[in-house]
Amino acid sequence: MGRVFLLAAWLLACAVLHHGACAAATGPVSAIAGSQKIACKLLSLTHPDHTFFEGSDNYKYETQTQYWSSTAYNTPACVFVPQNAQQLSFAVTTLTLTSTKFAVRSGGHMPVQGYNSIGSSGVLLSNSNLSTLALSHDHATVSVGPAYRWRDVYSYLQPYNLTAVGGRVGHVGVAGLLLGGGISFHSSQYGFAADNVVAYEAVLSSGLIVVAKADNAYSDLYWALKGGGNSFAIVTRFDLRTVPFYDSLTNSPTVFENFTSLKTVADQYAFGALATYISAVDALQPNGLRQDFRVASFMVNREGLSTVHDTFFGDANSQLADIAGLTASITFQPVTKGFIENGRSRGGSNPQGVDANNAPYFWIVQNLSWQNAGDDDTVRAFAKATIAKIEGTITSHGVAGGYLYMNDAGDGQPVFQSYPSANLRRLKDIRTKYDPFRIYTNLLVGGWKVLDA
């Protein structure tokens, strides 16, 4: 089927362009100025009900409403919303043959400007209608399209007393979290969320639609997608292992006794469904603010923890006091040896290659939100300078963790450089194999690119 759509797009592009687009590519594809107009025309001619232009309600919905951070709002030449993998294949081929830049948006939670959106020089591919959501007959796996956010997955599985190893914030998209590895409430038991993916249905840059599994002809692609980002393929369906909703023997495990024994001012502890909890937490992170986050990691160390905490809040109080609507936080995410080892036993090796021998770690994320675009430069400069100071501190203490978690990283942070060198070389080889003309590097904008590391 993928070849049919590839041929159709090829012939259509040749008919419209009349200037040698049919010639065989001999090197990396680069964007052509003005080509977005041709691409939008082709998409609107073939799929008028799924191609949206500025001024329509659907265009506004796809370019603003669906994003978490207003820093990601943009004005693409048009928005194309495929209904299935075949239509996405057609779009990728059309954009390739017209040498048009494009962005892909799923959940829209990444706040880095231009990482999941694009301006008037390109086309936005929205995953809003790639909406597979189905539990297998034996309830062992659930198939999820990239249209969904984790709140949708948890709500769907709740009646079966099941859940999936997924995001901790409900409006985080399924695709972005999994392609970056994914930290979950269940990670200490099951590893990265990506360690629990059984199969990926994906569109290659050639337009071919494939299913990648650990034990089939695309096992190398399967490995790369478990934390390798967007350099390899556009995933149209994730098949995930399900897990029990709650499998402790007690309502209040003894591990929490040091906390539950404290005198409280207010106590909201309750035994309830993950979907319910996620819904309540989502209200604390509304859409539409301006957002920025940056990541660092270090081996658990009391002195290092205190220094990182004091550095962040000391600098925030002294430098950002006049920023309207500011919220500044730093989160210490514990990563245990069990997290790493249980993930490997469940899903095999992954590109991140985190060293279990130095665990436990704290993967920290500094999160900043504010109201006004006029404060962007000030807040982002603070974020970069402060994370650099934190990295210097943990390095001087000899406890630097090395690995940088992609899904919490900020613009320009060297994510892939923090992976083991052998894994990075393997990722680069796999990228070359599946995308020799660099469609998903040169034309697909945004994200951390393996080739650039």
TrEMBL record:
Keyword Metal-binding carried by entry: no
InterPro entries in UniProt: FAD-bd_PCMH, FAD-bd_PCMH-like_sf, FAD-bd_PCMH_sub2, FAD-linked_Oxidoreductase, Oxid_FAD_bind_N
Range of residues in the leader sequence: 1-23
GO molecular function: FAD binding; oxidoreductase activity
Keyword annotations: FAD, Flavoprotein, Oxidoreductase, Signal
Annotated ranges, domain FAD-binding PCMH-type: 72-245
Family named by the database record: Belongs to the oxygen-dependent FAD-linked oxidoreductase family.
PANTHER family associated with the record: BINDING OXIDOREDUCTASE, PUTATIVE (AFU_ORTHOLOGUE AFUA_1G17690)-RELATED, FAD-BINDING PCMH-TYPE DOMAIN-CONTAINING PROTEIN
Designated name of the protein: FAD-binding PCMH-type domain-containing protein
Lineage: Eukaryota, Fungi, Dikarya, Ascomycota, Pezizomycotina
